[in-house]
Amino acid sequence: MSQSAAQRSLDLVVTSVATQLMAANAATSVQVSQEVLADLVAYLGVDVSFLRYNDHAIRASRLVAEWPVRPGVPDPDPLALVYFADADPVFAQSEHGKKPMVFRPEPATDDYQKRIEEGRAIPATSMAAAPLVSGDVTTGVLGFVKFGDREWSPEELNALEAIASLFAQVQARVQAEEQLRYLAEHDDLTGLHNRRALLAHLDARLAEGQPGPVSALFFDLDRLKAINDYLGHTAGDWFIRVLAERLRRGAEGSNLIARLGGDEFVVVPTRPMDAESAEALAYQLQSTLRERVSIDGEMLTRTVSIGVALGMPGQDTTSDLLRRADQAVLTAKNSGGNKVAVFTDDMSMRSEFRNDIELHLQSVIENGALLLHYLPEVDMRSGEILAAEALVRWQHPTRGLLSPESFIGVAESINLAGELGRWVMRSACAEFAGWQSRGVGGDIVLRLNVSPVQLVTDGFVESVAGIMAEFGLAHNSVCLEITESVVVQDIETTRITLAGLKEAGVQVAIDDFGTGYSALSHLKSLPVDTLKIDKGFVRELGSDPGDLAIVRAVIALAEAFGLELVAEGVETEAAALTLLRHGCHRAQGFLLSRPIPGAALESLLAKGRIPLQFSASGRL
């Protein structure tokens, strides 16, 4: 073949290689590279070809593709990974070489010949090696080996250089794809998998026919905000990175670990795991994460709440599993944090109920599905009705009549407590004024519960005074009840608000009194009219000496400060008689009356008293 014909033939080969490699991507690059090597081996009349990539981070050459594929590859394969520091001079030149190299059988290449003989069990060889170059960096090498000796023409070496350049482009493209895929599937801050990777993994694990059960451990750090507030978000990020690394070490193996964002992580054990084993793993990892972290000279630690849930392949979806794990971790956090909770069906029912409440509460306040019941406050000596406590109810279309315990907490969590409280106040005052206009209830007090949000809201005093004026209610005919814990949350704001309410002619009662005695030191400086003994101390009166001691102390306290005293939760005759014997005659509870609708209370008010179901003759 003439020189020009040989050149044209080489040009066609380069063009063919370019066409084949153009379609290669991260998923197909090894297979396509192997097919190209096979064609080149046949064209060049050589026996072996290989493609190797340089890993400069560890200073090594890594085998990517070869043709023909060696049968019975040794383990470990001496050609799979060759460290440049340990390499023979031939391999060593491929670390930074920039131009094609030719090696022929001679003493200078004895080490290389020995390595090839060990890897392929072949005799002396000759080789042409073209480096893969990207910019100023040698990224790999493309090699062709002939058993025995072979001459390489300048035209062939030029063609090999061009082909190596094409392989370098594929290598760069594949690395870019892999980097994009890594970034798409990993969290920037910690290097753990992200939500996208987690969802894809769980989708595959929960597919029909896969082994199960599949467990998920949902981690939520308790009060990371304190670190962010105290040391800044940079310190918070460092704390998360340290904990992520501890989680990675603690859950080592084939477990998938993902960061969902913020301070939330998920661990998915790769092997099927029952609830007991998953819970044990959760406790083990919780212990690992509890170790202190050094940040800016501070030794800090945070507890972690963990929710554990299981899913069955072919039955449960990824969203089912993660929702259960999320419900479990919320249960752990709501129990005070630093807990491990395993998902139960009861959690699901509570979560479904709460979601129902949260989604519909706003519209319920607006569309009239709320109503009021009233719990009478009675003089246990005579049955006379002294006051009535307004209690909101929700007439739910499918769940029936809901008590405030079902939705007040939700209202507070979604910032609807103020709006709900205003509805209760306006509605109760309007109904109260209606009774008085019809000649009943003129001597009783309307008691209204006030949330902590309402108490610290600007303009609250003016709002209450305005509603009383709107419905023409007399001074001291309305009493607002606040819980004992609210009194000390923000004592200065509370003191100002209560003083304003007192000036507006509103009475104030401390509800659930005795649960902590936290308000004792403030009683003398707060304009309080009434103490209400918490029902927890009243239910067992007559049988529990400890409860009696607390109740007697509260009674003495009320007398010392000149305050009205009301006992809540009177449900037994023994409790009623015990209270009477010790000087507390105002009470409310199921023994006296259950909460009743406004119309029923109006009828009772017209009668003036409630028939007592017990004899009060035993009082002192």
TrEMBL record:
User: What InterPro entries does the annotation carry?
Assistant: Biofilm_reg_signaling, EAL_dom, EAL_sf, GAF, GAF-like_dom_sf, GGDEF_dom, Nucleotide_cyclase, Rev_trsase/Diguanyl_cyclase
What residue stretch is flagged as signal peptide? none
Originating species: Mycolicibacterium chubuense (strain NBB4) (Mycobacterium chubuense)
**Looking at the record's lineage, which domain of life comes first?**
Bacteria
Please report the name of this protein according to its UniProt entry: Diguanylate cyclase (GGDEF) domain-containing protein
GGDEF domain location, by residue?
Answer: 212-345
Residue intervals of the EAL domain: 354-609
Q: Which SUPFAM superfamilies match?
A: EAL domain-like, GAF domain-like, Nucleotide cyclase
